[in-house]
Specification:
With about 400 residues, the chain is α+β, with helices and mostly antiparallel strands. The protein folds into 2 domains: about 210 residues, Antithrombin, subunit I, domain 2 (Antithrombin, Chain I, domain 2, 2-Layer Sandwich), CATH 3.30.497.10; about 160 residues, Alpha-1-antitrypsin, domain 1, CATH 2.30.39. The chain is built from 7 helices and 19 strands. The strands form 3 sheets. Strands 1-19-18-9-8-7-10 form a 7-stranded antiparallel beta sheet. Strands 3-2-4-16-15-14 form a 6-stranded mixed beta sheet, sandwiched between helices. A 6-stranded mixed beta sheet has the order 5-6-13-17-12-11, with no helix packed on it. A hairpin with a 5-residue loop joins strand 18 and strand 19. Helix 1 packs antiparallel against helix 7, helix 2 runs antiparallel to helix 3 and helix 2 packs antiparallel against helix 4. The longest helix is centred in the first third of the chain and has 17 residues.
Length: about 400
């Protein structure tokens, strides 16, 4: 079962909308939440079904099939580990058709012991993320009838590692009081960087290629641009909605946010070079999806007055908890990110002679910026985030 272009567009569109509510440093994974929303839509009825379908961007009748295709495709991606988990009380009888759409090995049991259940769920989250996330992001209550969760972990090594150097940011508040841990490298591949003119302002995009077909795009917008505008523009660049001028075609001068192209004197006849410096980061975030229930199509699904998911069980169910924990680390040798999402339905030297001139592209990501971690060939965004607290230089 393969993922369709429509599913990729739907997941990336949810990334765009989620980015619009980001406040401060954050990391999140729409690819981790989308399949769970799809399985809920498959079992929902009435307004809850309609709202979930609108949030997903696909018809509810096609949601479960699309989710299975997404999970199957991600399972085959190198550098990416995914898992789906379902836990139910022994007294909850699931609809056979709905349960058959989930992996058979995913089904576990919730006991009457909250402490034991919490321990088992936390162990699953830690195991499925290699210890990156140690706690299942779910609120268990006496009314919790089931837990539906996904785990997603990606790791990649850079095709060319960076050098670690101190970075001083002279102009951005909060980044000026200490040296930051910067990652720096030079390359002759000028098309790794480009500038786009978006409706909200100019955007500089740097592509950092991983060895497993997983890349990270760093995004620096104009200073007045919000995280949602920067990350949204980055997703639109993947879809080709905004043209990007590559570094090979850019003129001299300050051509984009954090990017300057100039002629420099050189002691050797060097070819044009792209010199990049960016702040290393390690960011974590916890998200309450019900705090933005309209965004995820969960408004009616929260209503415990009557059952909203007759396709899941004859027992009346409503969504009592929907949360995600995510983490991402960008370092000299590579990148890793992980997200666990859970839904809990409840009842109801010397100076040389400079004889030559050459062209130097200097890119500096030395103020808050965004990132997209994606599968290179499908352009499916697996994780996204906004960096406000870079690592300090030791």
């Amino acid at each position: 079962m393969a993922i369709t272009k429509a599913t990729i567009q739907a997941v990336n569109a949810l990334t765009c909308r989620w980015a619009g509510v980001v406040d401060g440093g954050s990391v999140f994974s729409a690819a981790g939440a989308w399949p769970l929303l799809a399985f809920l839509a498959d079992g929902a009825t009435g307004p809850a079904r309609e709202e979930l379908a609108e949030a997903l961007g696909v018809p509810a009748d096609e949601a479960a099939h699309a989710a299975r295709g997404l999970l199957a495709t991600m399972e085959k991606m190198r550098g990416l580990d995914t898992a789906l988990g379902l836990w139910t009380r022994r007294t909850l009888e699931l609809r056979e058709a709905w349960e058959a759409g989930l992996p058979a090995e995913a089904h576990g049991v919730l006991t009457a012991d909250p402490a034991a259940d919490r321990k088992a769920l936390d162990a699953w989250a830690a195991k499925r993320t290699g210890g990156l996330i140690e706690r299942m992001p779910v609120t268990l209550t006496d009314d919790t009838e089931m837990v539906l969760a996904s785990a997603l972990t990606l790791r990649t090594k850079w095709l060319r590692p960076f050098d670690e150097v101190p970075l001083y940011s002279p102009h951005w508040p909060g980044w000026t009081d200490r040296p930051l841990l910067a990652l720096r490298r030079a390359t002759l591949l000028l098309d790794r960087i480009g500038v786009a003119d978006t409706p909200d302002g100019h955007l500089t995009e740097l592509k950092v290629f991983g060895a497993d077909g997983i890349d990270v795009h760093l995004l620096l917008g104009e200073e007045q641009m919000t995280p949602g505008q920067v990350l949204g523009a980055g997703v639109n660049l993947l879809a080709g909605r905004h043209p990007v001028v590559p570094g090979t075609l850019l003129p001299y001068g300050d051509v984009g946010p954090g990017l300057r192209i100039q002629k420099v004197r050189s002691a050797t006849p060097d070819p044009p070079t792209l010199d990049v410096a960016t702040a290393a980061f390690d960011v974590t975030a916890d998200h309450d999806l019900l705090a933005h229930h309209e965004l995820f199509g969960l408004t009616t699904a929260r209503d415990t007055d009557e059952g909203r998911f007759p396709g899941i069980s004859a027992l009346p169910l409503a969504v009592g908890s929907a949360q995600q924990s995510a983490t991402a680390e960008f370092g000299a040798k590579g990148f890793r990110a992980s997200a666990v999402t859970a839904f809990a339905p409840v009842g109801a030297g010397a100076i040389p002679r400079l004889r030559w001139t050459t062209t130097r592209l200097r890119a500096r990501f030395d103020r808050p910026f965004g990132f997209l971690a994606l599968h290179r060939h499908s352009r499916l965004v697996l994780a996204a985030g906004w960096i406000t607290e870079p690592k300090p230089f030791d």
